[in-house]
Structures are given as structure tokens and as C-alpha cells.
Amino acid sequence: MNELALRTNKGQYVGGETVYGAVYLHIDHVTSGTGVRLKFHGYEAFYYEERGSQRYSDPGEFSVMRGRKELFDVEVPIFTSSDPIPLGCYVFPFQYELPADLPATFHCKGPLYEATIRYEVRACVIGKESNLKVSQPLIIREVVDPALLKDAVRYEDSSEVLKCGCYHQGDITVVASLNKTEYTVGDTGTVSVGIRNSSSVKIRNIRVNMKRVVHLMRGQWQATPGEATKLKNRLSSSAASPGPLVEKVWSETREGTSNKKVELALPVELKNLPPVVTLGKHIKCVYRILVDVGLKSSLSLPSGLLKIPYLHPPSNSEWDAWKPPHWVSQCERMTVDGKFAVPSNVLAQEEFAGLPTFQVLVDNK
Q1: Residue 291: which of 344, 250, 261 has the closest Cα?
Q2: Positive or negative CA dihedral for 116, 118, 122, 126?
Q3: What does residue 352 show for φ and ψ, rounded to 5 degrees?
Q4: Is residue 275 over pLDDT 70?
Q5: Can you tell me the distance from the alpha carbon of 308 to that of 157, in angstroms, rounded to the nearest whole number?
């Protein structure tokens, strides 16, 4: 059976990095294929449905907004021949520099929307044997911007407690913080809350909520055929984008806290969550943690706000699970020309160290 395999040097990248890899081809019976084509593709897209109850008097009416941006789409042959590819095993090394400032790999689905940022590399045999193809997802992490870390993971406020709006009851200081500035989906974070109460008012409870806020932007409203005439007049006054889509994803409440000093460390499981996206043109996703302190006598303090600057995507499970076919060690290395060509000196460097059939020079400094 003819087979095609694909392997990159890593499972995760950031914008501006170079992807190194190889396509492995095994031809053990006559084929009509005359070459190999490689494609790198990345895009962001969303779908949002607005029901009648949100804007229109008729609850049966609805409109749809869609947005899509091609982040890159590059496809070229890496090997061509005037004759069918002969029997044998072949390896085609390649490299591709990713565009800078790419948003993170992302997928989130709600009752009325779905948003995706996806990247992949594909290879296929050119010719009538079009079923001979393979693909691998690329997981993109956003480049960390130190400016986004400033003051994001710590909150401190000292508030004067007033009775009836004028009688001074003392002060309460609230300090809240996260244990890290960067997380990966699957991590467990910690929200620490410290309270110093020098007032005469007792603390009733402490509530900590984490909310996901998704922004869908720069889409185009569309109508179903039956609604096209009615919707035409409405679109001129439609909002350019839906409002923020807010969902509570975690909460913790501690009741009956009346101490003068409170120290809490609350674990937050960051599992099964889409990552933070700040660089998307159509899609952005952030997480906000609100800390609320309720007091006796129906008093309350201003809400404390923490932000998770970076929640990175999980590891590339397909890349992690990949195992080389038994025949790859027999592959003959082929020369790749054009956009994806790799300089010969790079093939012996560490970029290809983890790829089958490549012998890397060891630097014994």
C-alpha cells in the first residue's frame, strides 16, 4: 500500500517562528502520482446567530453574522516529475516561516455562536491518486507581551466603610492575586485573597467569580432567503458586531467570614477552556476574575478585578501521539526547490534532530 506521512520538528509555535519538517512517501505499487504538494493554512472564523427575542418583535425571526480571515494560505509543489513516481521510499524536507503576530489556536462554541482559529499543514500526492494525503494541526501560542502583565494579576484596595453614607466605621483592605502570569489549559491556578478589617463591620461573605468574555468583530450580517427583504431595512441600523459574550466559568463563595484578618487560597481548575486570544482580528477571548466582599448591614466594597494575561493552548495531541511508520528509515532524501526549500547546512542542525532519517552534527564545545 502506498503511504504518505508528515512530521514537523515541534507541535507548538509562535508567530514569526520557522516550521521545519519532512514529508515521507512510500510507493510499493505502481502509482499515477507525479509529485508532492505541500500547503500551510491558517484562518479565523466565527458564526453568530441573533434571535428575534434579542432585537425583533417576532421571536421566529433571526439573522446571522459570519466573519472570516485567512491568516495565511500557501500551497506549492515540493517535488514534481514528468513521469510517475517510481517504487521506493522518499523523504522531502521543508521549512516555512510563519507570519508574525498570529492569534492563538482557539475553539469555543456557545448556544448561539461558534468561533475557531485553526492552523495546519497538509501534504498530498499530485495526480489521479488524490486520496494519498495527510495533514497535521499546528498549535500556535501567542507571543508574550510584557506590557500585558503589568498589574494584571494583583489587585489592592483600601476602602473606608461608611454607615448611612457619612459615619466612619473604619477601613478594610483587600489584596487579591494570581500565582502566575501565564497558564496553560489544564493547569490549576490559585487565587489568593487577603483581607485586613480594621472596621467595626463584620464580613458577611467573599465571592470570587471567573468569567470568559468573547468578542466577535468585523463580521457580515446575512439573511436567510425568507428574511432577505425584511432584513435589508434592518441591517443599516444593525450593530457592527455582537455585544461581548460573557459566561461564568468558575465561582467560589465563602460564607460567614467575620474575622478581622482573612487569608484564602482558592484553586482554579483551568481545564476544558479555550485559550486567551488578544491578537485576533475577528475573535478575541479574555478571562476576568472578580473578587467581591460582602459586609453585614447590606454594605459592600468595590469589586476587585484580576486578569489572566495568558492562558495558552494545550499541547498538540496529534503531534505527541505520532509514531513513524516502519519504512521511514529506508527513505531516500530528495531535493526540494522553491518556497519550502531547506538550505543543506540546516539539514544537519538541531532543527531536524527529532525527525527520522536526518543525522544531526553534534557540537562538542
Answers
A1: 250
A2: positive
A3: -110, 15
A4: yes
A5: 19
